[in-house]
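== Folding task for one protein ==

=== Format: two labelled lines per protein ===

==== Paired sequence and structure tokens ====
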Amino acid sequence: MPQSEWRAIFHVDLNAFYVSVEVRDNPSLKGLPVVVGADPEGGKARGVVMTCSYEARKLGLKSGMPISTAYRLAPNAVYLPPRWDLYGEVSAKVMDLLRGRADKFEQTGIDEGFLDVSDRTKNLEEAKDLAMTIKREIRDSLGITCSIGIAPNKSLAKIASDRQKPDGLTVVPFDNPKGFLAPLPVAVIPGVGSKTQAFLTEKGIVTIGELQKVSGQQLMKWFGKTGVWLWGVIQAEERLQVFERDTLKSMSVERTFNEDREDFEHVYAQVDIEARELAGRVRDANVKFKVAGVKIRFKGFQTFTRERTLTGFTDSEEALRREARSLLKEFEHKKRPVRLVAVRVSQLKREAEAIARLDEWARE
């Protein structure tokens, strides 16, 4: 590939992040089914699993699962309450390390981010060497592991990072990225959940290779403007830039449900978890917020955002939870499957510095 066309993107995903931090601090947990989330209270609690170890996943547990279900499946697992301040501290150190290794860096969650390393690498071998260096630095300095995907664009890098977990490195063949995608199931495409997968299965489409044969026009008929984005992903033509935020303008936490949720109580429970995590990150960053907001995405990718300006600056978890629930009430009676829900804060203030709200909130 000529240097003028060279583009190398990393997606770094910290493996079972919360659990990894807990195991690092308590090595006796290594190899055990460990769950970070609500106290199961003997299987009677209404909370959910935040994350769980790979050993727990082998028992059928997964993120977002009701904690009561997890307890029935694995009553002898180790259940731990989340320690948001600690996770935020470790995450900040990882993100600083990644930022120092990138030409451009985009943090997309407490445990993941994209790196554009096109300028500091000349070829695939140099990119792989850099990825191995990053993995070694994270392991040696912070005692946790990560999986990295290397690809010519963001969506491919994210798909690749998920191929080998934990502690993996997956390199998409730059001379044939479409061929890399072809045998994979459509479910690996970011944003394609169980409902979309079922729809495509009805059309006789199971793999990305089969989906690659569908015209862009047909995808638009099926999915609207999302079909344009989907075509770019499956054809390995997506060229979204790594978006580097120079100033902290907003903070958010979002989760895509493993399966679309029609029970709004489950949505509220997820919002409570996100509000708790986000409030912890706000306090860890030593800021306060004046605007609370939510984002909700329904089946079909229709997305809405709402926000409310508070009477003053705060870092209160209870205030954030209350406002987030209130903002979501207008959607409660729509009786539509919910795909994603997010909580965010903006108009942040650190000491005497007021930071403007982020105008990229609705950026898809």
